Amino acid sequence: MNAIGVDAGGSLVKISYEEKGKLHTKTYPVEEIFACINWLQILSPDAILKLTGGKSALIQSLVEQKIKLVDEFQATVTGTRYVLKTEKQSTPDQFIQVHIGTGTSIFYVTPDFYERLLGTGIGGGTFIGLGKLISGKENFNELNELAGQGNSHQSDLLIRDIYAPSPSPLLGSLTASNFGKANLNKDAATADHIASLVRMIGETLVLLATQTAAAHQLKNIVFTGSTLDGNQPLKELIASFQDILDFNPIFLEKGAYVGAIGALLDR
Question: Which residues cross the membrane (predicted)?
Answer without folding.
Answer: none
